[in-house]
Amino acid sequence: MTRLLLAVTLLVSIGTTAYLWFDVADTPVPQSTNEGDRLSLLPRSDDDPPPAELDLTGDETQHQPAEPDIKQASVEPALSYIAADYAEQIQHPTYSIPIPSKQSPYLHWNRHVSTPMPILDGSVKAALKLNQYRYFYPENIQASLVTPASLNHATLSIIDVQSNRELTQLDVTDTQWNIEPEADWPIELRLKAALSFDDGDDVLTADFRLYQPIAEVKGVKPVFGRGPDMVIPLVLDIDKSGIYRVRANLFTTDDQPVAVLTSKTRLSEGEQTLDLRAFRASMSGYGDEWQLKDVFIERMSGYPGERAQFGISPQDHYSLGVFDTGQLSDEPYQMSEQERMQLEFLQHAAQRP
């Protein structure tokens, strides 16, 4: 008997990784590959380190923790649920994953998460709120102070995170701020606010990133059907050749999220067309008028140490018009060999006495 650490991901919910210790026979564990790794679809980039407890890309080595002192417990019900959940997920190809709810992280890839912190010796809380996490020069950095305390004045500083050098300083008296960036600012930046209240002074900080865009969406060509897919030709203007990952969300015209569409391919400089595909089953149960939103363009790292770079979308949505999914073939998605092995492994583990 071999004690294994099974890292399984509840893909339908919020991408939480559950670590479960259990005893199974010496069953070969399928090795993860990029082709079958659905974790890589979560909304992050090569430029963002994943949280310590979650390997989102599969690109980094997952180190097995030291074995803790544990008590034997039945995990079969949990594994049965996970196996069933995974079986449902692989009914859809990785390029067209249904969006289960409006709380899906796919819908908020550029959200800045602010956390209220105690200030003034814990008598009140405050937070610095940014309207997004990634900015693209020359767009302004919009920030605000959220607190019930009455602000007298504040000194705002933009700090280079790597060198800790102050790049600019601004004195303000209100709680909503608009900061113009400079073209030579680095990527990793920190907003520092030295705050003055009637009851004392305090300091808050918030980190963000500033990019020079290297690609831009120019528009969308008419959609068409190909087999079980609605094909969406996305026109891009590429400033720097490389391997690009493009993600966008398919919506109905009444703003119901339908599916996250992903494509990865090598693109040359100049105007290029990249096809996003929406699988028929992912579009089932909706109408026949569609739009594309939340376009995310990433030039992926080409070698260790190279940063990912990003492009921009001038419009917040692109109308796709009317497309009847009834013209698409209804062939089911054929799971890959890697997905089949992962499913069999989960089902085998769940059935162990």
TrEMBL record:
The organism's place on the tree of life at top rank: Bacteria
Ranges of compositional bias, category Basic and acidic residues: 60-70
Region (Disordered): 32-71
Record's protein name: Uncharacterized protein
Phylogenetic classification of the source organism: Bacteria, Pseudomonadati, Pseudomonadota, Gammaproteobacteria, Vibrionales
